[in-house]
Each structure stands twice: as C-alpha cells, then as structure tokens.
Amino acid sequence: MSSSVTRAAGSEPAHSTGLTVTISGTQASASPGKGTRAQFWVRALLAVLAGVLLYLSFAPRSLWWLAPPALALLGGCLHGRRARAGFALGLLAGLGYLLPLLVWTGEEVGPVPWLALATLEAVFIGVTGLGIALVSRLPGWPFFAAAVWVAGEALRARAPFGGFPWGKLAFGQADGFFTPLVALGGTPLLSFAVALCGFGLYEALRVVRGHPLRSAAVLAALAVTAPVCAGLAARPLVSDAAEDGSVTAALIQGNVPRLGLDFNSQRRQVLDNHALRTERLAEDVKAGRVPKPDFVVWPENSSDLDPYAQPDAYAVIDKAVKAIGVPVAIGAVVAPETGPLRNTMILWDPVKGPTTTYDKRKIQPFGERIPMRSVVRLFSSDVDRVRRDFGPGKDPGVFDMAGSGVGMVTCFEAAFDDAVRSTVRAGAQVIAVPSNNATFGRSQMTYQQLAMDRIRAVEHSRTVLVPVTSGVSAVIRPDGSVVAQTKMFTPDALVATIPLRSGSTPATALGPLPEYALLLLAACGLGWAALRRTRARRVL
C-alpha cells in the first residue's frame, strides 16, 4: 500500500503502516521496522546522556556551561516526537539526571528511598518531556519548550507532599553568566533562560544547516542569543554595596560526634560542641585575635535538647551566650507536651535569655515527618527513627540582632522561592540558612545546598549566612561570592564583616509573577499544539 497525504504544516506524522506523509513539502517515512526501533534506542541513550550532562553541571563542579548543551541534546531527542515517546525520553533523561544528583538521599538509609525519590521526580521530567514534544512542532518552539520546562519545575516544587524543588536548573548556575537574571525574575526566569538557550542551540543547528535564510533561523538565533544578552544586561542588578552600613557576624560549626543518622544519639555532645566553640570564640575576641561579632548564628539542630524543658540544656546555652556577650540564634528541637515537634530557631539574648522564636515552615517529608507511615514502613523500617513528626510554623522569622534584621530560612526551606522571598519581604537585611547536613555524611548534598544559597543571595541581593553543624558553613556576599567557608566535620567559627541591605530586587518585588507569566506561555504553547492536532485530524 502506498499513498500520500498533504497536511497542515507542523502537524503530526500519520501513524498508519507504510504511510508516506508530506509536511511542508518534505517527505518523511513513517513505516516502522528495525530502523525505527534502532533510532528510538539511539535517542534513548542520548536522552540519558543529556541527563548525565545536566547532573555534571551542578556543584561541587563549576561546569554550569554544560546545562545548555545538555538541553540541546535533549531537545534533539524530543523534537518532532509523539507524546508517548516524549514522556519515555523525558523519563530516561530525568533518571540520568536525578539518580546521581540525589544519591545522597540514600546515604544512611539504603537505596530504596533514593531510588523511589529519584524515580518519582524523574516522572515529572517525563511529563515535561511529553509537553516539550507536543510544542516542538510550533514556530519558535524553543520559547514554548523552555516555558514547559519551567512549568515542570513549578509542579515539582509543589507536589507531592509540598514539593521537592531540588535540582532546578537555576540552582546549577551559581557561577554562570545567566545568574544575574535571578535578580530580575527569580529562579523561574533563570531556569527559563538556561532552557531557552539549550533548546535554541539545537534549533539553530537544525534550521541554519538546512534553511539559513528562513525566518525560523532568525528565531532560533534569537533563542540562543537573547538569554545570553539578557544575563549580561542584568549584571547591574547584582551589587554587594552596604546600603545600611556593615556589621560583623559569626557562624559556629560545632561538629557532631559521629556521622550518619545516629549523629544526634549523643545530643548533649552536639550541644556541648557548639557551646564550647562559642566560648572559644569569646576567648579569641578577648585576646584580640578576631573582632567581636555583633551577633552569632548557630546551626539547625545545634541543640536537639529542648532548652525550655531541660534546665541543663538551658544552662549550657545561656553560659555560652553570656560568654560571647551578643545575641545568638540557636537551632533547637522544641518538644511541646502535646502536638508535633518544632524545628525552632531561638533568639537568645545575653541578658534576657531566650526571646523571639521562629518555627521552620517547610517540613521535609520522609525526613522530619512521615506521610503514609504504615505504607512507607513496608519498604524501609528507618521511618520509625522519626517517632514523632515535626509540625510547620506559619510566619516568616526576622530576628532583631543588634539592630540588624536577620531572616531565618532553615535548611530545606532555601529550596523554596516563597519561603525565602517572604522572609526578605518581612524585613530581612541578612538571610541566615542554619542547616544540619550530618545525616548525609561527606556527600555532595552540602555543596548543592551551598550553590542554592548563592543563588538566593543574588536573587534578593542579601548576604547569606550558612552555619552548618558539620559543614560546609559559609559566608556568601550579595553578589553570590563565597568569602569564607569551613571544611566538613571540623569544629570552626567564621567571623566576617558583611553589608546590610534593605532594597528590593525586581525578583523580590515581582514575587511569583514571572513564574505565572511563563506558566501562561507554556499553557498557550500546549493549547496551540492541541489546536493544530485537532485541525490536522479534521483534514485527514
């Protein structure tokens, strides 16, 4: 059987066996066979390779420039594919990307949680691949495809169980020339720029090679150059000037008695480590070896003993704070008589004692709380290590520390746009990200989180202080540069003079509007693609 059908430009290839389809004057064979299967497996391998390259663009490597070629390769795999193939190829790319990126989640609990999380998140990238395949036949498709990628990231950041934004394209760009765009439109705009450059790169190579004078070639070239030029043009938004003067801040890294999930089995030792390191800092100040800080920040979980309920913990903290003689933010686990636990930062005054508190709002599922506990227990008994779930706080926390507004964004919260933005809007002149990475050993997790914190510094033009129980602790300037950091699993104290800033970047002022605009662009692209498919079927 042999026939030909003329269709509207950009419509899907026919599915019938042996059908030759003419699309915009170009014949394409749609007959299945060994060649077609071989081509799919080649694309499958290339999709996995694209995911691996994307993983390699993330910290601790400074290979941010690998992200656009990785997405160009993925775009080549997805271009012109059916929806089902787009999902399969996107899923494979997601596995190649997220399996190595998230391997630290199984550091102490074995491979099952790691494989489950990576696979679940890869499914979202599979859905994203499906959407990209659908819009890939539209004129100027790289713009729609990049918006679809942002839509996929937005979905991952919200579902399930409150979302898991880890692995956004934006978080791999801390050293890149696209980075200033995050101060303009937040992480969604930065991710969009990277994706657009990647998909545009593939389209430019594809179109320019065959039709260098067509308008499509101009659009392809624009897709590559626009994000690069926009990133360069946005550089004036990045500044670390002291708008409200400067202060001296200190971060305490007390270290933990052992690595892994059992790090807090010696809770008093963890607390003592941080108290003693603070007292040693006080001695160094008295001896003139370091300047006296205006305030001090301890890490998350630096006191897993509730100082409100346990007098000995209260006494240890109070003694250390009095020794340094300045306000100290203490990370503590607060255990009310009823209800969930609280992951709390406590502002501890050397005269008044504990005053203001901030309860962590974004509680980590399967870490600080266990959804569907009875089901999850079937796969891992480690869920029973979390005997009592943590509950979320409601309001952003900004501590008045020696006249400076220090906003608390506890560990996992730094991955969420709204958590950081609401803290800055609440008056934070400095952002503190107290963290506890001891359960993840010497994995890449702490470096991935540090890169994320650098992006947040540029996004909101704030100094970001990162005290971590076991490292890497760091001081990050508002331009994203790391001016001091510790080694892992080493007791230490960082003292640095930092700028105070109260101005708003466009990203802070606009809030979620850039993301909403990109979601609308993605919806328009998908709607247009659906309309074209409907019209093509009517022609047949």
Folded structure, characterized:
- This protein has 540 residues and is α/β, with parallel strands linked by helices.
- It folds into two domains: 38-238 and 513-539; 245-502, 4-Layer Sandwich (Nitrilase/N-carbamoyl-D-aminoacid amidohydrolase), CATH 3.60.110.
- The chain is built from 14 helices and 15 strands.
- It has helices at residues 34-56, 67-78, 83-101, 111-135, 141-156, 181-210, 215-233, 267-286, 311-324, 373-376, 417-425, 445-460, 506-510, 513-539; strands at residues 4-6, 20-23, 26-29, 246-253, 295-297, 328-334, 342-349, 353-359, 397-401, 404-408, 430-432, 463-466, 474-476, 482-485, 492-499.
- Strands 8-7-6-5-4-15 form a six-stranded mixed sheet. The protein has a six-stranded mixed sheet with strand order 9-10-11-12-13-14, covered by helices on one side. Strands 1-2-3 form a three-stranded mixed sheet, with no helix packed on it.
- A hairpin with a 2-residue loop joins strand 9 (397-401) and strand 10 (404-408).
- Helix 1 runs parallel beside helix 3 (83-101), helix 5 crosses helix 6 and helix 5 (141-156) packs across helix 14.
- The chain is globular and about 80 Å long.
